[in-house]
Structure formats: structure tokens, C-alpha cells
Amino acid sequence: MEPRRAPWGRAGLAVCLLSCLLALPPPAAPSPCLEPCRCYLNTLLCQEPNSVRSLAQLRSLENFTEIVIENQTTLINLTLEDMKNPRELKNLTISKTRLQFIAPDAFRASPNLTHVNLGYNRLQFLSWRVFHHLRLQELVLTGNPFRCACGLRWLQLWLVGKQAESMGNQSLSCEGDDGVEIPVIDMNIRGCEVPQVWLEYNSAPMKEGMNATLRCHVEGQPPPEVKWSVPDFGGHSPHITYESASETTLQVFGVSAEFNLQNITCQAENEAGLSEGVAQLNVTFPAVIRDLGNAVEYHKWCLPFSVDGNPSPSIRWQFAGTDLEETTYIHTHFFLEGLRNSTLLHGCLYLDRPTHLSNGNYTLFVRNPLGSDSCTIFQEFMDVPDANFNLVDPVEIPTMSSSDYRNSTERSPVETLQEQPIGISVAVVLAVCACLFLSVMLIILNKCGQSSKFGISRSVALAQEEEMSLQFMNVGGGGSSSPLSSVESKLETLKTNFIENPQYFCNTSVHHIKRRDIILKWELGEGAFGKVFLAECYNLSPTEEKMLVAVKTLKEATESARLDFQREAELLTVLQHEHIVRFYGVCTDGAPLVMLFEYMKHGDLNRFLRSHGPDAKILDNGGNGQSFGQLTLSQMLQIATQIASGMVYLASLHFVHRDLATRNCLVGHNMVVKIGDFGMSRDIYSTDYYRVGGRTMLPIRWMPPESILYRKFTTESDIWSFGVVLWEIFTYGKQPWYQLSNTEAIECITQGRELERPRTCPSEVYDIMQSCWQREPQQRQNMRAIHHRLQALAKAPPVYLAVLS
Ligand code: AMP
């Protein structure tokens, strides 16, 4: 079998590849290449005969992911000392050498190793311990003079068992005591069996402070060695008694709450292999509040808390001494349920746009059968306003008369809203205020009216802008004037999506990917959350060993950013459609936190359109084998139809995107287009956003009047944005209202002016755009109908269109 080689050939990529390795600083180390070895990117090749005596002589191998050593007759042993440098190693080939011995711990410092080729060496023996901790996908051992012995029993089991796939079709043989060579799978060694382990313990709930006794029974030949592994929380001094070769007892004195969900393991190993039995104690203890912090604000406010207890405590809240009833506007959310390794629960009491009416004491009560706890915090969200009243409906804190404890998920929002006469009357009052304000505004606007459909004058709209800034500030910030960081501002957008989509607050199980399975290649771009990299990901697909993915890193991992990260991941896990970019999962073991998406090789649609328009001189797409040239009408219609299809899906879920634009769509192979970003691209395309009140970035050029004026985002406002996306497609990625400043664009949109028909746009398509730009949201054509119209046009573009210049 040929040794594995690095698949990359272009040395020009070396710098980028090395500097992009996940969680590693850019390489500063000297070159590890010793003459006559050669280095390509992150691959070391030593093939010149007899030049390497031991790998320990090769320094600075930290970033190397592949090592190939061949033809080295001086290489005899392989130890941990040899292998401790290349910690990122994934592929190792040591072949055609005199290698006789591999120490059991030789690969302990190379946890990422997945492909090992040890073919054509001098190995007579090889312990299972060498590979035990690895997730090998390929192990090549052909051409070694193995001796049939119990120490190879594991290999025999691998060849026929679960690991058979990683062994391929190798025909491995060994030499028996009689000097005859037989296939390893036919080896029959007496008294050689992998140990078996049974754990005996009381899994019933036990109170904190009690003693636990666990008995481990083992069987196996040769007699196995037994080891216990007990989580070390200090002060428990587990006591182990070896009663006989086949039975040992572990006693843990005074068990504590920390033992819950932690593994206590009994391991038995012999030459043939290893087995283990795992137990978890169920230690009960009273409900307790570990933390109740001050509210943190992004779009919603979160009153963070941590509670503990076994059984899990029920929780309830009081506001200003009265029981608080949960609704979609104020509700408890727990994080990472089901992904926990302790009984500690973290959560937030979320408040959607609280006002001064929400200021006051919040008391958290927790209870389980063993006890209860409570804690109060005073929270001020906003100063009491004077005459300047916020137009967007504030959230009244609903309270309950019943003092029953109830689980926060017990009630549906519908039920709870019906029981809110005070909340409803406040909403009615506010609606009346809003109507009055609107009427006054329209009268003023009509008075100053010019030629626009809605008669809003330039000067009034400009004056309004200042007003709007204040409104937005109040709405999003609850009166706080501290500006959000760029990441927080993007998180805010994401969270707003959630607010309008409360059904996504479920605990969707997010797929977790191991960091060692991700190899970053190079940077694709930068979004608000952090850099986006192209990466190879192992073990993601059952059919492919590795696949290309786009990895989004989270640059600021504050506790709340982490929580938002988790929530976004939950949302993305739910959204699955052929025209929504595929989300594979997250990697949270270590920093930075990353999200993995399907790689879309042509990047974002806006850039794609610009580079395939009349202005793009070189119609080359980077040598990836697909050249589209200037986009044809039919291709533009196909692009539009695909986005429409994704939007039909989002609308069917009542998911409001709020930031649909070509910069947030991605283009993949064969011009497959997918909606690929949910509010995270504001840094690169910062001119597409308008900063309002110093904090909120709004894509005003894509927003309908009601979103600009009242910050109302709905499925219908997404339809308006879709019309603008159509316009972007047919202008090869021009910025809407490019000739106008932000304030002028606001004025035009609110006045009812429409974007002009692009030169290459047939009237049938412009009709669709105009149906999206109806001022009355309800009069806009729905997404499904738009999709059908585009589909029909894409199938049979009118003939005359082909001659449009
Ligand atoms: P974002 O943070 O999502 O706005 O991403 C920043 C940039 O990274 C985008 O403009 C794209 O060029 C690139 N990018 C993001 N996601 C992907 C992906 N799934 N495939 C390819 N490129 C991507």
C-alpha cells in the first residue's frame, strides 16, 4: 500500500494554512526540515534512505498534521519522546524501516491521529495500548513479521469486529511457535480473552453525606489488572479493597452533590485488551440558588440565574411580591438541558422590552422535596419616562394571583395572554397612542407632500430620523445609553429573530463536533461574530472520511455571548431546507467557539453577482472548474427562485429573517443558492447598514416603511426585502439607492418611491418586485405565489428577454 500523502500541492498556501490552524498562534518556529527531509505545507516527508535515526531529532513539529518516514533502516524504536512534538498529527506513515518496538504510550501526545500506516516494518508485537485512546479511521500493518501471541488478540478482534472498516482488506498473518505462518484471524491462543467487567452498586437515590459501596467483578485470561477511576472532588478519600483477583470493592465516604452525573469507572485490562464498567451515583440534595445576577441586556433582557438540586427543582418568580406569570414576553429559559454533566442548571428570566413598569424586586423561589431556597434582586430597566412615550408597546409584567408552584413550561402563551386583562388594557392604550401619533404624523406629512405616493416630504422625513433614533434606542436599549459592541449588536439581531419566533426557544439538540476533527485551511471572510474559515472536518459524514466545511468562529466568548451562541445553534439546527445553508453543529470544547456550516464555494451572492456582471473583467471563478461568465436572464431567475424557495420555508415556520439581502445568501456548486446568514454580516458590508441611536445597525435600504418607521418586522417585511433582493440580482449586485445617502434613502422609501426597473430586468420580473413593495403589508403578494411566478418564468423565460441589453 502506498503511504498517504498530503493532498495539497500548492506551496503558496503554506503560510495561510499554518497560520489558520485552529486555536494556534501563527507559526513562529524555525523550520523543522532537516536535510534531507522535505516539508510541504504541514507535511513532513523523510524518504531519503537512512537519514532519520529517531523522530526526536526533528524539532518544531507542533503544527504538522502529516508525517511520512520511509526507507530508514536506522529507525528501530518509537517512543513518546519521539512523538511528543507533532501534537496536531493526523496522518502518520512509518514504512519500510526496521521499526521493531512501539511503546504503549507512544501516541499519547497525538490524540488527533486518525490514519496510521506501519506497513513493511519489523514489528513482531504490537500492544492494543498503542491505539486505545485514538479514533483510528485507518490502520495499515501489512508486511510485518508478527508472532502469534495473546498480545495480538486485539488485532484479531479488530479484523472481524467494529474496527474492520479501518483495517480495510489487509491479509495479516503471524508466525506460530511451530514456525508456520497463519492468518491472524485464524490464531487460536489458549487462555487469552479480553476481560469482562460487571459493576454492582446501589443506583437508588442516596442523600448527601452517605457512603457508597461499588463492587467490581472481573473475568479474563490472563488475569486482568483492575483500576478504579473516581472523580476527585477532594475530601472524599475513596477506599479500595481487593477482595480477590476477580472482585474489588470501592467505598466513597460522604458522597457530595458533585458526584451526580459523573462517571465512576472500574477498568480491567490484560494483554488481550481492556474493558470497563461505569457507574453514576444519584445523590439527592435540597434545592438551592447558586447565583442570581443583575440583568444583562441585548435585545431582550436576561436575569441570569443558576439553581441546583436533586431532584431537579421547580422554580417560580415573584415580581414586587406577587407571583409572576410567564408569557412570551417574560419567561424562563434553561440552557444546555440534556447536555449537562452536573445537576447545576443555568437559565435566564427573559424580559422582552421591559419598561420602567418592570423595575422592581424579582424574587426567585426554588423547591424540591428536600428543601427550598429563595433570593431577591432589585432590577431597574429604565428611568420613569416623562411626556416622551415610547411608541413600541412596552411589556407589562404579568403577575398571578395563585401562589402555586408551577413549572415554567406548563402554560402556553395563549393561555397566559388570555389571563392578562391589565396587560391587554395597557396594550389597547398604547395602540390608541400609536394611532394618534400616526394620524398626526400623516397629517403633517401630507401637508408637506410632494409628488410621492404617500406624500411624505424630504424635510419631514429627515427630521423624523432624529426622532426615530430615539425610538430605536428606547426600544432596544430600554433607555440605556451604553453602546453595544459589534458582536453584541449582531447578537441583538439574532435574538430579535428569536423574539419574533418564540417557538424556537426549544431545547433542540445541537450536534457537537470534536475540535480535533476540524482542520482549518484558510480564511474565507470575516463576519460580525468572527472570522470564517474553510476547514476539513472528519467524522461528519458516514460516507466520507472528511469533508469541506465553513467554520465560523466566535471572537468574544463572554458568558452571554456563549448563551446566545447556544441559542443560535438551536435555531440553526431547526432550520433545515435545501435553500437554507446547512448547519452541521458546534464545537465548544475549548476556544474559540465555532459553528460549522456547509461550505458554499462561491461565497456570498452579492460578491458573486458583482463578479458576474458586465463590469467584471475576468470572468474566472478562481480555477474551481466552473465558469459562469456574465449571468444570463435564466440564471438570474434560477437564483431568485431558489431564494424564494428558502423564504417560503421560513415563512411557513413563521420565521422572520429581518435581514434578507444578497450579502446574506451564499452560492455553492452548480450555482445552488442558499440563504446563509441570519444577521451576522454587518461588519463587512457595513455601508449597507444604518446606525441608529449609536447602537442599532439597520439594513434600511432593504426595509419597508413600517420597519423603518415603527420597527415592525414580519413575514411581510421579509417579502419587501425579497423584492429588493430581486432588484440586486438584476443589477448584478448594486446597492439599492446607491446614489443616495442613508437619510435620503430613508426619505425615499418612506415617501413611497420605488427602486427603478434595472436595465436587464423584464417587466414580468419588475411586476413581481412591485408586488413586494406594496405599502400595505397585507397587500404584498405572499412568498409562495412569488415563488410560483418565478419558477414559471425560470422554466420558460420569455423569448424577447434574451435580446435585452
Ligand atoms: P458571515 O459572518 O456569515 O457574514 O461570513 C463572512 C463571509 O464569509 C461571507 O461574506 C462569505 O464570503 C464567507 N462565508 C460565510 N459562510 C460561508 C459558507 N458557508 N461557505 C463559504 N463562504 C462563507
Automatic annotation (TrEMBL):
Occurrences of domain Ig-like (ranges): 195-284
Pfam families per UniProt: I-set, LRR_8, LRRCT_2, PK_Tyr_Ser-Thr, TrkA_TMD
Residues at the site labelled Interaction with SHC1: 504
SUPFAM superfamilies with a match to the protein in the record: Immunoglobulin, L domain-like, Protein kinase-like (PK-like)
One term under GO cellular component: receptor complex
Region forming the signal peptide: 1-30
Main enzyme class: transferase
Keyword Electron transport on entry: no
Any one Gene Ontology BP term: nerve growth factor signaling pathway
Record's keyword terms, sorted: ATP-binding, Developmental protein, Differentiation, Disulfide bond, Glycoprotein, Immunoglobulin domain, Kinase, Leucine-rich repeat, Membrane, Neurogenesis, Nucleotide-binding, Phosphoprotein, Receptor, Repeat, Signal, Transferase, Transmembrane, Transmembrane helix, Tyrosine-protein kinase
Localization of this protein: Endosome membrane
Transmembrane segments: 422-445
Residue numbers binding ATP: 524-532, 552
A GO term for molecular function: neurotrophin binding
Domain Protein kinase: 518-790
Active site as annotated: 659 (proton acceptor)
Name of the featured protein: Tyrosine-protein kinase receptor
Organism for this UniProt entry: Anolis carolinensis (Green anole)
Classification lineage: Eukaryota, Metazoa, Chordata, Craniata, Vertebrata
